[in-house]
Amino acid sequence: MSQSFYVKAIWDAEASVWTSESNIQGLVLETATLAEFEAMARHFAPELLAENLGIKGHVPVRFEAAGGFDVIAA
């Protein structure tokens, strides 16, 4: 598979939450902490890829976070 997937956590200072930007269809997250965001993204990303695209097994997903500091990639 040559398609690349990503999930980006973006800090919304006004609402004090992390929101998501992603190219995984249906993945929409909003959490109070970055740790919670990462846990939810790691749980739901593979589930949605399997459900929407029939992709099973390990698929690399790039995680990033941005907001009030430099971008962090994992």
UniProtKB/TrEMBL annotation:
Ranges for domain DUF1902: 5-64
InterPro entries with a match to the protein in the record: DUF1902, TTHA1013/TTHA0281-like
Stored Pfam families: DUF1902
SUPFAM superfamilies: TTHA1013/TTHA0281-like
Annotated protein name in UniProt: DUF1902 domain-containing protein
Organism name: Brevundimonas subvibrioides (strain ATCC 15264 / DSM 4735 / LMG 14903 / NBRC 16000 / CB 81)
